[in-house]
Amino acid sequence: MLLEKYDDATIQAIYKVALNICSIETDQIAKQTVLNEGDRKRQFKYAEDGVHFARQFKRKCLPSTDEWCGHPIKSICEQQENADLVFTKGKKAINIGRFNWTAYYNEIEEEQVKAIDKVEAEKQLNSPVVDFPTTTQFDTLKLDNPPAEGSHNWSTSFHGLSTARFPDEVANILLEPIKPEDIEIKPDGMLYLPEIKYRRILNRAFGPGGWGLAPRGEHTISPKNISREYALICAGRFVSQARGEQDFFDVSGLPTAAEGCKSNALMRCCKDLGVASELWDPVFIRKFKKKYCVEVWAEHVTTKKKKKLWKKKDDTLEYPYKET
Questions:
Q1: What coarse category fits the chief subcellular location reported for this protein (predicted)?
Q2: Nearest-angstrom CA–CA distance, 13 and 34
Q3: d(Cα 319, Cα 302) in Å, to the nearest integer?
Q4: How far apart are CA 199 and CA 265, in angstroms?
Q5: Cα separations (Å) of 263 from 126, 163, 256?
Q6: Which residues pair with 214 in a beta bridge?
Q7: At what angle do helices 101-126 and 40-61 cross, to 10 degrees?
Q8: 301: three-class secondary structure by DSSP
Q9: pLDDT-derived band of residue 64, with 50, 70 and 90 as boundaries?
Q10: Closest CA relative to residue 324, chosen from 294, 300, 302, 297
Q11: DSSP SS3 for 322
Q12: Per the confidence metrics, is the pTM higher than 0.90?
C-alpha cells in the first residue's frame, strides 16, 4: 500500500477492521489502542505487523478459543528491539512479556517475499518490453549520424562480409582446439569458456585494436533481463552479429548486467569464427565430461538440502555447497 493515499483516520479504520478479524470488538479497540501522532509509516507498519502476529499467535498458541487476541502496545519505539506484547479478553489482560520484534520480522520475511515474488512474476508476464535508458556512450543520434569519409556506420553496415578468407596464421589461432584446463563446467553440467578467454583468442589472432564489438541498436530491458544486438568487426570487416542477454535482480545492477550482455554477444559471435566450437558438439561434451568431470552429491551448508552438482575432478564445490 502507498501510505500517501490514506489519511490518519483511514489508517486507524484499517487497523480497527483488521483487529476485528481477530475477534476484538471495534469499540474495545478504540479504548485500548490509540494511534498516536507521529510517523504514519511506522504506525501503519505496527498495525499491519501486529495483526499478522496476532492471527499467527492465536492459531498456534490459543486454538481453544476465538475470543483471545494479541496486539503490541502502542508505546513501542522504532528503536526498540523488544517490546511488551499484551493479550486481552474483555476487561482482562495478560502481558506475556518482552517480545523480540526483530526476530519476528525476520521470521515472516520469507512469506512476504514469496507473495511479492508472485506479484512481480505476474507483472513481468504482462509488462511490455521497454528500452534501456541510453547514455552518451550508446547515443542513438551518434549511431545514426552519417559515417566519415572512408569509414563505415557499423550500427547498420555489413561491409566486408564474406569478401575474403582470413590468412592461415589467423585461422589457425581461431580454430585451435581449446585446452581442457580452460574449459569450465556449471553446476548444472553445462560446459563453457570464460568470456576473457574469447577476448584473448581474438587478441592473439588480430592483435589488440584489430577487432571490436559495434552496437546494432539500443538496449532492450524487461523486468529481469537486458539484451542488445552487437556486430563483431575484425580487421575492418563485418564478421558476425548476435544478441547478447543477461539477467539481473535489481536496477542498481544494470551497468554490470549491460557488460555481461556484451560478453554474451561476443561469445555467440565467435561461434561463426569457429572459436571454441567444441563446446557445441554433443560428442565432445560427452567425452569431456566423462574424462574431466564428475557429478557428486552436495549439501547446502545452511538449509542442509542435498542435490547432485557437476564439477571438474580437480576442483571443489563453491559456497554454499559442500560435497557429501
A1: mitochondrion
A2: 11
A3: 10
A4: 12
A5: 29, 26, 11
A6: 231
A7: 100
A8: coil
A9: very low
A10: 297
A11: strand
A12: no
What residue ranges do the domains of the chain occupy? 3-107, 130-183+193-277, 281-324
Q: Which three cell numbers mark 174?
A: 581461431
The Cα 113–Cα 323 span in angstroms is: 29
Cβ burial 201-214 (10 Å sphere, 16+ → b, else e): bbeebbeeeebebb
130-183+193-277: CATH, from 3.40.47.10, 3.40.50.1370, 3.90.79.10, 3.30.390.80: 3.30.390.80
pLDDT tens for each residue of 186-220: 999 999 999 999 999 999 999 999 999 999 999 99
Q: Which of 228, 255, 221, 222 is nearest to 243 (CA)?
A: 228
Residue entry with cell 580487421: 235
The CA dihedral of 275, 143, 248, 115, to the nearest 10 degrees, is -140
Q: How far apart are CA 120 and CA 224, in angstroms?
A: 10
Distance from C-alpha of 147 to C-alpha of 145, rounded to nearest angstrom: 6
At 145, the amino acid letter reads N
What is the C-alpha to C-alpha distance for residues 227 and 187, in angstroms, rounded to an integer?
24
Give phi and psi for 67, each to the nearest 5: -90, -20
Pick left, alpha or beta for residue 230 (phi over 0 → left; psi -120 to 50 → alpha; otherwise beta).
beta
The angle at the Cα of 53, spanning 51 to 55, to the nearest 5 degrees, equals 70
